[in-house]
Amino acid sequence: GISIINLNRPRTKNAISQKLLTEFYDAIGKIRNESDNRVILLRSLVNNAFCSGADLKERDGMSPSDVTKFIQNLRRTFRELETLPIPTIAVIDGVALGGGLELALCCDLRVAGVNAKIGLPETKLAIIPGAGGTQRLARVIGIAKAKELIYTGRILSPQDALDLGIVNYCAQEESSYPIALKLAREILPSGPIALRMAKLAIDRGSQLDLDSALEFENACYEQVIPTEDRIEGLKAFKDKRSPIYKGR
């Protein structure tokens, strides 16, 4: 079904501390090992904050080697989220700045609420996005626009983020959660193996030249041919009923 990861660190607007990072990594691992998860929503329980980025107060007390280790763990955790073999949706209400936007970029789809503030302002602090922002943002909106946003540290409105293609939908009312939930429910009836292979084909194929990518797509397609779900889909179509997929 639909599973939800809740961020809930109100005093810091979900700033990413070492403790939060460990808990988040464990939550992702649990989801990866549970076969009944079909769609994941990543949301915040904190008003006006999806994630404010790294916990700079905690980082202020770190040695350079501690910072390096933290960033490595951050990248590892974000990569674990990105490579989950199921669709993921970031529910962005409030600030999603720095590491907060980098976190959202690890999800397949993003929905912004009317109060969302989105950006990578790291250069204003004389650093750069260190958890994949320079790479993932460029892949989402193109190199030139990504450079502009990172060089300027500009904070975007929800509509600006939608226009650039950073988010898929922009809520007209306060919260983005109803839109994200509707989107998840629209995905839910699809075959789980097909979703897994589609995600893999798109993610891996986008890093290859076209001929290699088409070969990889074919390899992914071959994975769905022998499944019980494919036969069920054909039977359901013939019988004019909704299919019942079991992920087999």
3D structure, described in words:
The protein is 50% helix and 13% strand. It has 248 residues and is of the alpha/beta class. It folds into two domains: 2-187, 2-enoyl-CoA Hydratase, Chain A, domain 1, CATH 3.90.226; 192-239, Lyase 2-enoyl-coa Hydratase, Chain  A, domain 2 (Orthogonal Bundle), CATH 1.10.12. The strands form two sheets. Strands 1-2-4-6-8 form a five-stranded parallel β-sheet, sandwiched between helices. The protein has a three-stranded parallel β-sheet with strand order 3-5-7. Helix 1 links the parallel strand 1 and strand 2 (39-44). The longest helix is centred in the N-terminal third of the chain and has 19 residues, at 64-82. 33% of the residues are buried. The mean pLDDT is 94.
Q: What share of residues are in beta strands?
A: 5-15%
Tell me the count of domains.
2
DSSP E strands, number: 8
Which CATH architecture of the largest domain? Alpha-Beta Complex
Oligomer: single chain
CATH class of the largest domain: Alpha Beta
- Order of the strands making up the biggest sheet: 1-2-4-6-8
Shape: globular
Give the count of helical stretches: 11
Overall radius of gyration: 19 Å
The averaged pLDDT comes out at 94
Structural class: alpha/beta
CATH topology of the largest domain, which one? 2-enoyl-CoA Hydratase, Chain A, domain 1
Largest sheet: 5 strands, parallel
Query: How are helices and strands ordered from N to C?
Result: EHEEHHEEHEEHHHEHHHH
Uncertain runs: none
Keywords: Lyase
Family: Belongs to the enoyl-CoA hydratase/isomerase family.
Organism: Gigaspora rosea
InterPro entries: ClpP/crotonase-like_dom_sf, Enoyl-CoA_hyd/isom_CS, Enoyl-CoA_hydra/iso, Enoyl-CoA_hydra_C
